[in-house]
Amino acid sequence: MKTIVIIPTHNESSNISALISAIRRQGIDTVVIDDGSTDDTFRIASQSRSIVLQNDHNIGKGASLIKGFEFAISKGYDTVITMDGDGQHLPQDIPTFLEAARLKKTGVIIGNRMQSVANMPKIRVLTNSFMSWVISCITKQHIPDSQCGFRLIKKEVLQRIKLRTKNFEIESEMLIEAGRAGFTITSVPIKTIYNNERSHIHPVRDTIRFFKYLFERTKWITGR
After folding, report:
1. How far are the Cα atoms of 97, 163, 179 from residue 154, in angstroms, in the given order?
2. pLDDT per residue over 97-120, tens digit each?
Protein backbone atom coordinates (compact mmCIF):
# COMPACT_ATOMS: atom_id res chain seq x y z
CA MET A 1 0.00 0.00 0.00
CA LYS A 2 1.28 3.41 -0.95
CA THR A 3 0.75 5.38 2.26
CA ILE A 4 1.08 8.99 3.34
CA VAL A 5 0.66 10.51 6.80
CA ILE A 6 -1.33 13.75 6.91
CA ILE A 7 -0.52 16.04 9.83
CA PRO A 8 -2.77 19.09 10.33
CA THR A 9 -0.91 21.61 12.50
CA HIS A 10 -1.40 24.98 14.13
CA ASN A 11 1.55 26.40 16.08
CA GLU A 12 3.34 23.08 16.67
CA SER A 13 6.92 24.20 16.10
CA SER A 14 8.19 22.40 19.23
CA ASN A 15 6.88 18.97 18.15
CA ILE A 16 6.69 18.81 14.38
CA SER A 17 10.34 18.06 13.49
CA ALA A 18 10.65 15.00 15.76
CA LEU A 19 7.27 13.69 14.56
CA ILE A 20 8.18 13.98 10.87
CA SER A 21 11.58 12.36 11.41
CA ALA A 22 10.09 9.39 13.27
CA ILE A 23 7.56 8.81 10.49
CA ARG A 24 10.05 9.17 7.66
CA ARG A 25 12.40 6.65 9.33
CA GLN A 26 9.68 4.10 8.62
CA GLY A 27 9.85 4.93 4.91
CA ILE A 28 6.47 6.69 4.88
CA ASP A 29 5.76 10.02 3.18
CA THR A 30 4.35 12.95 5.14
CA VAL A 31 2.36 16.04 4.27
CA VAL A 32 1.96 18.78 6.86
CA ILE A 33 -0.99 21.13 6.54
CA ASP A 34 0.10 24.33 8.28
CA ASP A 35 -3.16 25.95 9.32
CA GLY A 36 -2.10 29.58 9.51
CA SER A 37 0.51 29.10 12.22
CA THR A 38 2.11 32.21 13.68
CA ASP A 39 5.22 30.40 14.93
CA ASP A 40 7.96 28.53 13.01
CA THR A 41 5.87 25.46 12.17
CA PHE A 42 6.03 26.05 8.40
CA ARG A 43 9.79 26.64 8.32
CA ILE A 44 10.65 23.70 10.57
CA ALA A 45 8.35 21.29 8.73
CA SER A 46 9.81 22.36 5.39
CA GLN A 47 13.36 21.82 6.64
CA SER A 48 12.36 18.36 7.91
CA ARG A 49 11.89 17.07 4.34
CA SER A 50 8.11 16.93 4.52
CA ILE A 51 5.69 18.17 1.92
CA VAL A 52 4.06 21.27 3.44
CA LEU A 53 0.80 22.85 2.34
CA GLN A 54 0.13 26.21 3.96
CA ASN A 55 -3.18 27.92 4.67
CA ASP A 56 -3.03 31.72 4.55
CA HIS A 57 -5.00 31.88 7.78
CA ASN A 58 -6.48 29.49 10.33
CA ILE A 59 -9.38 27.71 8.62
CA GLY A 60 -9.84 24.72 10.95
CA LYS A 61 -8.72 21.12 11.30
CA GLY A 62 -11.51 19.79 9.10
CA ALA A 63 -10.73 22.10 6.21
CA SER A 64 -7.03 21.28 6.54
CA LEU A 65 -7.69 17.53 6.48
CA ILE A 66 -9.89 17.86 3.40
CA LYS A 67 -7.04 19.71 1.69
CA GLY A 68 -4.67 16.90 2.67
CA PHE A 69 -7.06 14.20 1.45
CA GLU A 70 -7.40 15.90 -1.93
CA PHE A 71 -3.62 16.05 -2.23
CA ALA A 72 -3.21 12.36 -1.31
CA ILE A 73 -5.80 11.21 -3.84
CA SER A 74 -4.29 13.39 -6.58
CA LYS A 75 -0.88 11.77 -5.96
CA GLY A 76 -2.19 8.19 -6.10
CA TYR A 77 -1.86 7.11 -2.46
CA ASP A 78 -3.77 3.97 -1.48
CA THR A 79 -4.16 4.84 2.19
CA VAL A 80 -3.78 7.92 4.34
CA ILE A 81 -3.01 8.04 8.04
CA THR A 82 -3.97 11.13 10.00
CA MET A 83 -2.01 12.16 13.09
CA ASP A 84 -2.16 15.22 15.32
CA GLY A 85 0.92 17.42 15.35
CA ASP A 86 1.08 17.97 19.11
CA GLY A 87 3.06 14.85 19.99
CA GLN A 88 0.18 12.90 21.54
CA HIS A 89 0.25 10.22 18.86
CA LEU A 90 3.23 7.87 18.67
CA PRO A 91 4.66 7.03 15.21
CA GLN A 92 5.62 3.63 16.65
CA ASP A 93 1.93 2.70 16.41
CA ILE A 94 1.78 3.23 12.64
CA PRO A 95 2.71 -0.41 11.81
CA THR A 96 -0.29 -1.54 13.87
CA PHE A 97 -2.59 0.39 11.54
CA LEU A 98 -0.88 -0.88 8.39
CA GLU A 99 -0.99 -4.50 9.54
CA ALA A 100 -4.69 -4.19 10.39
CA ALA A 101 -5.35 -2.66 6.97
CA ARG A 102 -3.70 -5.64 5.27
CA LEU A 103 -5.46 -8.29 7.34
CA LYS A 104 -8.95 -6.81 7.61
CA LYS A 105 -11.50 -5.85 5.00
CA THR A 106 -12.15 -2.42 6.40
CA GLY A 107 -12.40 1.15 5.20
CA VAL A 108 -11.44 3.10 8.30
CA ILE A 109 -9.26 2.06 11.24
CA ILE A 110 -9.32 4.26 14.34
CA GLY A 111 -6.89 4.38 17.22
CA ASN A 112 -8.50 3.39 20.51
CA ARG A 113 -7.24 5.25 23.61
CA MET A 114 -10.15 4.24 25.83
CA GLN A 115 -8.54 1.07 27.16
CA SER A 116 -6.27 3.20 29.32
CA VAL A 117 -7.71 6.58 30.31
CA ALA A 118 -5.95 7.19 33.63
CA ASN A 119 -4.06 10.19 32.25
CA MET A 120 -6.83 11.49 29.97
CA PRO A 121 -8.66 14.57 31.33
CA LYS A 122 -11.96 13.39 32.82
CA ILE A 123 -14.08 15.85 30.81
CA ARG A 124 -12.60 14.38 27.63
CA VAL A 125 -13.32 10.84 28.80
CA LEU A 126 -16.97 11.75 29.40
CA THR A 127 -17.55 13.69 26.18
CA ASN A 128 -15.68 11.12 24.08
CA SER A 129 -17.62 8.21 25.60
CA PHE A 130 -20.93 9.96 24.96
CA MET A 131 -20.13 10.98 21.39
CA SER A 132 -18.73 7.53 20.63
CA TRP A 133 -21.97 5.97 21.87
CA VAL A 134 -24.02 8.27 19.63
CA ILE A 135 -21.88 7.56 16.57
CA SER A 136 -21.90 3.83 17.26
CA CYS A 137 -25.72 3.96 17.29
CA ILE A 138 -25.84 5.94 14.03
CA THR A 139 -23.35 3.72 12.17
CA LYS A 140 -24.55 0.47 13.82
CA GLN A 141 -20.89 -0.38 14.41
CA HIS A 142 -18.93 -0.47 17.67
CA ILE A 143 -16.68 2.60 17.76
CA PRO A 144 -15.09 3.00 21.22
CA ASP A 145 -13.03 6.14 20.51
CA SER A 146 -14.75 8.16 17.82
CA GLN A 147 -12.83 11.36 18.53
CA CYS A 148 -9.33 9.96 18.12
CA GLY A 149 -7.51 11.79 15.33
CA PHE A 150 -5.04 8.94 14.77
CA ARG A 151 -6.66 6.86 12.05
CA LEU A 152 -6.15 5.14 8.70
CA ILE A 153 -8.52 5.76 5.80
CA LYS A 154 -8.42 3.91 2.51
CA LYS A 155 -8.71 5.84 -0.72
CA GLU A 156 -11.97 4.09 -1.63
CA VAL A 157 -13.58 5.78 1.36
CA LEU A 158 -12.26 9.23 0.50
CA GLN A 159 -13.33 8.85 -3.12
CA ARG A 160 -16.83 7.78 -2.10
CA ILE A 161 -17.80 10.14 0.73
CA LYS A 162 -18.19 13.92 0.74
CA LEU A 163 -16.79 15.78 3.73
CA ARG A 164 -18.13 19.25 4.46
CA THR A 165 -17.27 20.27 8.02
CA LYS A 166 -14.34 22.59 8.75
CA ASN A 167 -13.46 22.01 12.40
CA PHE A 168 -13.08 19.09 14.83
CA GLU A 169 -16.50 17.67 13.97
CA ILE A 170 -14.86 16.20 10.87
CA GLU A 171 -13.73 13.29 13.09
CA SER A 172 -17.41 12.36 13.56
CA GLU A 173 -18.51 13.25 10.04
CA MET A 174 -15.90 10.94 8.52
CA LEU A 175 -17.17 7.95 10.49
CA ILE A 176 -20.86 8.64 9.95
CA GLU A 177 -20.43 9.13 6.21
CA ALA A 178 -18.17 6.07 5.87
CA GLY A 179 -20.70 3.94 7.77
CA ARG A 180 -23.56 5.31 5.69
CA ALA A 181 -21.61 4.38 2.52
CA GLY A 182 -21.32 0.79 3.74
CA PHE A 183 -17.68 0.74 4.84
CA THR A 184 -16.54 -1.27 7.86
CA ILE A 185 -14.96 0.73 10.70
CA THR A 186 -12.58 -1.02 13.09
CA SER A 187 -10.24 0.02 15.90
CA VAL A 188 -6.73 -0.78 17.09
CA PRO A 189 -5.27 -0.02 20.54
CA ILE A 190 -2.79 2.85 20.70
CA LYS A 191 -0.78 4.65 23.34
CA THR A 192 -1.33 8.35 23.86
CA ILE A 193 1.00 10.79 25.58
CA TYR A 194 -0.62 13.46 27.74
CA ASN A 195 1.69 16.22 28.85
CA ASN A 196 0.75 19.73 29.95
CA GLU A 197 -0.11 20.94 26.47
CA ARG A 198 -3.39 22.75 25.97
CA SER A 199 -5.82 20.74 23.88
CA HIS A 200 -7.22 22.43 20.78
CA ILE A 201 -10.50 20.59 21.46
CA HIS A 202 -13.07 22.42 23.56
CA PRO A 203 -15.46 19.79 25.01
CA VAL A 204 -18.57 22.01 25.19
CA ARG A 205 -18.05 24.03 22.00
CA ASP A 206 -17.08 21.02 19.89
CA THR A 207 -19.94 18.89 21.25
CA ILE A 208 -22.32 21.67 20.16
CA ARG A 209 -20.67 21.68 16.74
CA PHE A 210 -21.17 17.89 16.60
CA PHE A 211 -24.92 18.20 17.13
CA LYS A 212 -25.08 21.11 14.70
CA TYR A 213 -23.42 18.85 12.13
CA LEU A 214 -26.03 16.12 12.78
CA PHE A 215 -28.80 18.67 12.26
CA GLU A 216 -27.23 19.98 9.05
CA ARG A 217 -26.63 16.44 7.79
CA THR A 218 -30.33 15.70 8.13
CA LYS A 219 -31.07 18.72 5.96
CA TRP A 220 -28.49 17.61 3.35
CA ILE A 221 -30.07 14.14 3.11
CA THR A 222 -33.69 15.33 3.02
CA GLY A 223 -32.95 18.29 0.78
CA ARG A 224 -34.72 20.70 3.15
Report:
1. 11, 15, 13
2. 999 999 888 999 999 988 776 667
